[in-house]
Amino acid sequence: MKTTFITTVLLFTIFSSSFAQKDWAVALHQPDNFKSAPDGSTTFAVEFDCQILEGSVQVGDKLIYRVLILDSESQELIITLPSSGFIPSNIRYEIGSSDIYRIGSEFTAGGLTIEDSKNITVVVESYLTRNSENDDPIIDTDSTNNISTATARWLSEEDAASVQDFVEFSPLVYPNPAQDVIHVQLPSSEPANMELTDVKGNLVLSSMESVFNKQSIDVSTLPNGMYVLSIKQGQKVNRPQRIIVQH
Which of 14, 83, 134, 157 is deepest in the core (most CB within 10 A)? Predict the structure, then answer.
């Protein structure tokens, strides 16, 4: 199955002027490595942020989403979670323009034996629906940002038993929202690599090596919107942090 599979899912959105106009964007957090277990199962967590860029979402509206795992090299679909349909989640509070709504789920993929570790692409696909029996879709003015991707590695049982986990740390990142510059305060002066991606998973800035414990990132030329900052410093990694650029 080729990459066209991902784009075809956009046909899910039905366009009709009778529905409220929204613009809904999702940004997938960088997942940890997937580790195969002796019983043939793999448990992993998926977390993503949602942002309403146009309009607002009311209490009782429903968010539906699913997760797809693909082989990064062949683009073959490995598994879809759930196996059919979408996972429903009722909106608990009103979401206004530029507000962030976070979703997190833990999944277990049973019965899949990964003999050789492989690079994978994690895809989260999310839509808004009305609070109705028919789950009528709320029209999204730009459905291309309903999908977000990230890469990870699915480890075989043997590799999972020997891999060294990274230690998570929380650098100070400010200001947020940012107009022109983002400052990053690191826990030490050890060299660090940083990556900034947009809500579609596209790399915006990378290879920003820091040799001091404070680094500044120029975002003055970036369009307004939500971005995700990932940092690796030795054996330490941050949980990717959402950054809003607002000039």
Answer: 157
Q: In this predicted model, what pLDDT tens digit does every residue of 198-212 receive, in sequence order?
A: 877 788 887 666 556
Q: What is the sign, positive or negative, of the torsion defined by CA atoms of 48, 132, 7, 94?
A: negative
What single-letter amino acid sits at 106? E
172: domain CATH number is 2.60.40.10
Helix ranges restricted to H, 9-54? none
The residues that bridge with 65 in the sheet, in sequence order, are 87, 126
- Please state whether the predicted TM-score (pTM) of the whole model is above 0.70: no
Contact yes or no for 126/65 (Cβ under 8 A): yes
Please name every residue paired with 137 in a beta bridge, in sequence order, or none if there are none: 129
* pLDDT of the residue at 122: 93
d(CA 164, CA 103): 28
Question: The domain containing residue 125 runs over which residues?
Answer: 4-9+19-160
Q: Is residue 14 part of a domain?
A: no
- Between CA 165 and CA 171, with CA 169 as vertex, the angle to 5 degrees is 150
